[in-house]
Amino acid sequence: MRTAKVFLVGAGPGDPDLLTVKAARLLEQADVVIYDRLVSAEVLALANPMAVFIYAGKEAGQQQEIQEQIYAHLLHHGKRARTIVRLKSGDPMVFGRGGEELEFLVRHGFETEIVPGVSSAIAAPALAGIPLTYRGVASSFSVIAGHRESVSSLDWSIYKGVDTLVVLMGIEHRDVIAGSLIANGRPEDQPVAFLMNVSTDREHRVESTLREVARGNVEVEAPAVMVIGEVVRLPARLEAMRLAEVKA
């Protein structure tokens, strides 16, 4: 018999101030916390210090193996704990296997609840001053998974007309992604921003163009969010306006 209730909780992009109030409360009450690789130490520090902490970070080539271990931990602690927090970076239902884990939990008789988090797909551009939509510039955006499986199977032509593209988990294959977009009609000189370690003290950004990214000329490190579109130019425009006001 299951005694535990499992909460699929979004940890946000890293800054603990961007957690929801409900997420913070559940972490304080948790008996078990199963957390992903990109969950920050600052967020984990808010959890019940008496909880059992289980690292469930996935490296390349380990995804399925670690996922099976996560399921085993849930089954093991489901008979012993009362509150299990399955803590995922960003939002648990955005490219985080949240739907798969929810299905597993329901199939095995767990009481479950989803606690949304702030996805880096939204938070990273916002924190960088890049609006995903902007009147007269961008009225649509798409969020794309940039890992190997997605890159090889996507029909890139459907993104030609989307104003702003946000790519998660795409750093390793950024040249292929940029080349595929150019080959399917996006302008070579379209601006690209890489937003790294957003909301942390290691936050950094690199800007370039699709052409330079496709040529392999842009050095960036994961974790980073890739933003493609004319809206990437807005922060520079705003900075120019600020400087003009200062000089005036």
Pick out its properties.
single chain; 248 residues; alpha/beta; Cobalt-precorrin-4 Transmethylase, domain 1; Methyltransferase, Cobalt-precorrin-4 Transmethylase, Domain 2; five-stranded parallel β-sheet; five-stranded mixed β-sheet; 9 helices; 10 strands; globular
Describe the structure.
The structure is a single chain. By secondary structure, the chain is α/β, with parallel strands linked by helices. It has two domains: 5-118, Tetrapyrrole methylase, N-terminal domain (Cobalt-precorrin-4 Transmethylase, domain 1); 121-236, Tetrapyrrole methylase, C-terminal domain (Methyltransferase, Cobalt-precorrin-4 Transmethylase, Domain 2, 2-Layer Sandwich). Helices cover 33% and strands 21% of the residues. It is globular, with a radius of gyration of 20 Å.
Write the layout of secondary structure elements.
Blueprint: E1 5-10, H1 21-29, E2 32-35, H2 41-44, E3 52-55, H3 63-77, E4 83-88, H4 98-107, E5 111-115, H5 120-127, E6 141-145, H6 148-153, E7 164-168, H7 174-183, E8 191-196, E9 204-209, H8 210-214, E10 224-228, H9 234-247
Parallel strand pairs: 1-4, 1-5, 2-3, 2-4, 6-7
Antiparallel strand pairs: 7-10, 8-9, 8-10
Overall spatial form: globular
CATH topology heading of the largest domain: Methyltransferase, Cobalt-precorrin-4 Transmethylase, Domain 2
- State the end-to-end CA separation: 72 Å
Mean pLDDT across the residues is: 94
Structural class: alpha/beta
Number of helices: 9
Rg from alpha-carbon coordinates: 20 Å
Order of helices and strands: EHEHEHEHEHEHEHEEHEH
The CATH first-level class of the largest domain comes to Alpha Beta
CATH architecture of the largest domain: 2-Layer Sandwich
Count the domains.
Answer: 2
Task: Give the low-pLDDT segments.
Answer: none
Strand content: 15-25%
Number of strands: 10
Helix content: 25-40%
CATH superfamily of the largest domain: Tetrapyrrole methylase, C-terminal domain
Largest sheet: 5 strands, parallel
Biggest sheet: strand arrangement: 3-2-4-1-5
